[in-house]
Amino acid sequence: MRRDESAQATTELALLVPLLLVLVFGVIELANAINQAMTIAAATREGARVAGALVNGGGALGCAAGNSPNASTVDPLVIAAVERVLTASGAQVSTASVTDIHIYKATTTGGETPGAVNVWIFSAAGGPVVAGEPLDFAQQSSGWPACSRNNVTPADSVGITVRYVYRAYTPLRLVAAGLATINLSDTAVMPLNATR
Fold first, then answer.
1. CA 160: distance to chain centroid?
2. pTM (2 decimals)?
3. How confident is the model at residue 6 (pLDDT cuts 50, 70, 90)?
4. What is the radius of gyration, based on Cα positions, of the chain?
5. Nearest-CA neighbor of 25 among 165, 166, 175?
6. Which site in 34, 103, 119, 186 is 20 to 30 Å from 159, CA atoms measured?
């Protein structure tokens, strides 16, 4: 007697296909999340590099009349550098999913100095104009004005933090509710360009 094994094959396929789909969708989500995390890391590094180079905007240090004549342009230029990386060709990051960007005076361990933090939040074309284009981020609070940044040895260090909400793309987000959104964050710290 010959045994018909088609029912067994169908059962095995029915059990295997969902597992394969979860695996494929998981790989796709992981690749997307890593790609976006790398873009955010590049944006924070670029922001820290620009902040380190611009220091207080030029001129004599200090917030008195005649000092730091371009201080008001420093943070918008830093945010513009961050936004340029986030929106670069091929980047999959949505600026609307960036919850906030912090520009802060870094402690020796790289943390935020309490009270010395400038917070920028998403506001589509609602920010200051840089190079003829409005930024998609507006300043919410200012605790560390550019004119007070010190680049005389020992120089201050600037930190840039970008917080972002990753939103899942695949149907896996419907099966595993915890994967629908994932909070990502990256920080870069750089000393201000020191003068002797």
1. 9
2. 0.88
3. low
4. 23
5. 175
6. 34
